Amino acid sequence: MIFLEPLKKYAVFSGVATRKEYWMFVLFNIVVWIVAATIDAMTGTYNLQMGYGLISGIASLALLLPNLALTVRRLHDTNRSAWMLLLFLIPIVNIWLICVIAFFSSRSDSRFRSGDVIQGSSFLD
């Protein structure tokens, strides 16, 4: 299951991640968040002032490091450095970074890619 690959590589910041791997994990995160928010609402642990509950807060913390590692590997796949994550702190420039992660194609000549990775041909690979 491709959406669980980032959890197997929990804190691996080297290598590359395909678009498909990235978007499947984003979908997995959304499902986890919806389930956690539902459990928070049913158990009464949702805090309106903070905007999240106990279960969704724990889930967010548990998925923070895999999200960072996957984003770094996705940037490596587009032949960009992980330092570009700092661009998320600049309000207008972060839109460009989201487009890079989401839409730019995988680069077979990436300096971060090893020679054993097969380049996909579909939109999501």
Order of helices and strands: HHEEHH
Main β-sheet, in a few words? Answer: 2 strands, antiparallel
- Compute the number of helices: 4
Overall shape: it is elongated
Distance between the termini: 15 Å
Share of helical residues: 40-55%
Query: C-alpha Rg, in Å?
Result: 16 Å
Global mean pLDDT:
83
By helix and strand content, what is the structural category?
mainly alpha
Tell me how many strands there are.
2
Number of separate domains: 1
Q: Spans of 5+ residues with little confidence (pLDDT < 50)?
A: 115-125
Structure, explained:
By secondary structure, the protein is mainly alpha-helical. The model is unreliable at 115-125 (pLDDT under 50). α2 runs antiparallel to α3. A two-stranded antiparallel ribbon has the order 1-2. It has one domain. The chain is built from 4 helices and 2 strands, in the order ααββαα. A hairpin with a 4-residue loop joins β1 (46-47) and β2 (52-53).
Give the SSE layout.
Layout: H1 5-8, H2 19-43, E1 46-47, E2 52-53, H3 54-77, H4 93-103
Antiparallel strand pairs: 1-2
Helix pairs in contact: 2-3
Short description:
The protein is mainly alpha-helical and 125 residues long.
Descriptors:
125 residues; mainly alpha; 3% strand; elongated; disordered C terminus
